[in-house]
Write a structure and sequence with these properties.
heterodimer, A: mainly alpha, Arc Repressor Mutant, subunit A, 2 domains, 8 helices, globular, B: 2 domains
Chain lengths: 188, 258
C-alpha cells in the first residue's frame, strides 16, 4: 500500500485516537516488513507469528507516543519495538535452551524432498546464526537490503546513516558473514 | 587497501550485488571491475543471495487473524478511553448500595436522553462491566414499550444481532468463560422468545414475524460456526449448546414458514 506523506501523517493522527480504520491501514502497511524482519532472525514460523503479534499489540499500547510522520518513521518505530521483543526472546532462549526439535520447525513454504528440506533448513540456520554475530548496525543493513528489499537510500534512512556509511557497513557485514560461514563449514 | 580504495570497493560490491539480484550473471558483473576486485567480489556477492533466503512473508491466514485480534484490542482501547471518566466516577461510588444507586442514576440519565456518552459506553460493554446493566435495563425498557407482538419480534431480532456482536467481541478479546456463558444464555433466551412470539402471531394468521424471526436466526448460523471454531476450549461447550438450540428453534420455524 502506498501512502502520500500527508495522508500517512493524517492516518497516524487518527490511529492515535484509536480509529479502527486508521489502525487497520497502518497494520496492513507494516505487517509484512515487521514479520519479515522478525522471521529473518527466528527459526520457527510459530515464533515469528507470536512475536509479530506482540509487536503490534505493544504498538497499540504505545501509539500515543508515536511521533513519526511518514512510512519510514512508522517502520523504524515498529522495528525498534521488534528489536526489544527479539532481545527478550533471545535472552529467554539463552536461559532455557530449546530442544533440538525446535530446529525442525524451520520456516518453509513449498514442500521439497525431506533431505533437500533438511539441507535448506541447515543452510538457513547457519546464515541466521552468523547474522546474530554481526554488529547491530551491520545486521540492520543486511536485513534492510536483503530481507526487506530496501535500496541504499532507504536503508540509510532506516539505520540513520549516510549512503557511504551504509556501503561500508554492507562490505564489512558480508566479509564477516563470509568468514563466519567458512568457519562453520570447516567445523562440519 | 586505502580508505579511498575501500570506499570504491564498497560501492563496487553494492553495485554488483544489486545487478546479480536483478538477475545478471555474476561473471558478467565481475568482468566490469578491475582484476584486484574480482576475487573478493566473487567471494562476497553470492552471500547476498544466501541472506535473501531468510526472507519470509506472513501467511494471509495469519495476517487476517492478527488484524481481527488487533482491531478487537483497538475497540477495547477506545472503550477504555471513553469509559475513563465514568470509571473515575464509579470509584467514588464503590460500595454495593452506592453502585446500585449509580446504576439507577445512569439508567435514568440514559432514559431521559441526556447520557449520550454513557449510552454509547454501555452499548459497547460486555457482561463483565458494570455498564452492561445499563444496556440490559435499556433493552428491557425497549421490549416493555413495544406496542404489539410484531414490534416485539423486531426488538428480539435486534437483540439477537446485538448478542451475536457481543459474543464475537468476547471471543476475540479472550474474555473469561463466564462472560461467554452469560452471553450464550442471553442469546438463547432471545431466540426462545422470538420463536414463541412469532409462532403465536403465525397462529393468529400473521406470517410476517415468523419469516423475520427465521431470517434473524439464520443470520446467526455462520457467525456462530466461526466463533465456535475460534473460542477457547473452556468457552466452546456453551457455544456448541447454543448452536444445537439455534438449530432446534430454526426447525420449529421452518415447519410453519413456507
Amino acid at each position: 500500500m502506498q501512502q502520500a506523506p500527508g495522508e500517512l501523517a493524517e492516518l497516524i493522527g487518527r490511529a492515535r485516537t484509536y480509529d479502527r480504520t486508521a489502525f487497520a491501514d497502518l497494520y496492513r502497511l507494516a505487517v509484512t516488513p515487521v514479520y519479515r524482519y522478525l522471521a529473518a532472525r527466528l527459526s520457527s514460523q510459530e515464533e515469528a507469528e507470536e512475536l509479530t503479534q506482540e509487536v503490534f499489540l505493544a504498538a497499540l499500547g504505545g501509539i500515543q507516543g508515536l511521533r513519526a510522520q511518514d512510512e519510514a518513521g512508522v517502520l523504524s518505530w515498529l522495528f525498534q519495538i521488534a528489536r526489544h521483543k527479539l532481545a527478550d526472546r533471545l535472552r529467554q532462549r539463552y536461559r532455557q535452551p530449546s530442544s533440538p526439535l525446535a530446529a525442525a520447525e524451520e520456516l518453509e513454504a513449498p514442500q521439497p524432498r525431506p533431505e533437500e528440506l533438511a539441507e535448506t533448513n541447515e543452510a538457513r540456520a547457519e546464515v541466521r546464526e552468523a547474522l546474530e554475530q554481526l554488529t547491530g548496525d551491520q545486521r540492520e543493513v543486511i536485513v534492510c537490503k536483503y530481507v526487506l528489499g530496501y535500496d541504499n537510500e532507504r536503508t540509510a534512512r532506516q539505520v540513520g546513516k549516510n549512503v557511504n556509511a551504509v556501503n561500508q557497513l554492507h562490505h564489512r557485514a558480508l566479509a564477516s558473514l563470509h568468514r563466519l560461514l567458512a568457519k562453520t563449514e570447516k567445523a562440519r | 587497501m586505502t580508505v579511498e580504495e575501500d570506499d570504491r570497493f564498497a560501492a563496487a560490491l553494492e553495485e554488483c550485488c544489486r545487478r546479480v539480484q536483478r538477475g545478471e550473471p555474476l561473471e558478467r558483473c565481475l568482468a566490469d571491475y578491475p582484476a584486484a576486485y574480482q576475487q573478493e567480489l566473487a567471494r562476497l556477492v553470492p552471500l547476498a543471495g544466501r541472506v535473501g533466503q531468510l526472507a519470509r512473508d506472513p501467511s494471509p491466514e495469519f495476517q487476517a487473524r492478527l488484524e481481527r485480534r488487533l482491531l478487537a484490542s483497538v475497540d477495547e482501547a477506545r472503550r477504555g478511553r471513553r469509559v475513563g471518566l465514568l470509571s473515575r466516577l464509579g470509584r467514588l461510588f464503590a460500595g454495593p448500595a452506592m453502585r446500585t444507586a449509580t446504576v439507577a442514576l445512569v439508567v435514568m440519565a440514559v432514559l431521559v436522553g441526556g447520557g449520550v456518552e454513557v449510552e454509547q459506553a454501555a452499548a459497547d460493554s460486555l457482561p463483565d462491566s458494570p455498564l452492561y446493566r445499563v444496556k440490559e435495563a435499556r433493552e428491557w425498557v425497549t421490549l416493555t414499550l413495544a406496542r404489539d407482538g410484531e414490534t416485539r419480534v423486531g426488538v428480539h431480532a435486534a437483540q439477537i444481532a446485538q448478542r451475536g456482536r457481543e459474543l464475537e467481541r468476547a471471543v476475540q478479546t479472550g474474555k473469561p468463560r463466564r462472560v461467554v456463558d452469560v452471553l450464550a444464555l442471553r442469546l438463547a433466551w432471545s431466540i426462545d422468545q422470538i420463536v414463541d412470539q412469532a409462532l403465536e402471531l403465525q397462529a393468529q394468521g400473521n406470517p410476517r414475524p415468523a419469516r423475520r424471526a427465521l431470517v434473524a436466526l439464520r443470520a446467526m448460523e455462520r457467525p456462530l460456526d466461526r466463533l465456535t471454531a475460534q473460542a477457547s476450549p473452556e468457552a466452546r461447550p456453551a457455544l456448541e449448546r447454543l448452536h444445537t438450540f439455534l438449530d432446534e428453534q430454526e426447525r420449529r420455524l421452518t415447519v410453519v414458514v413456507v
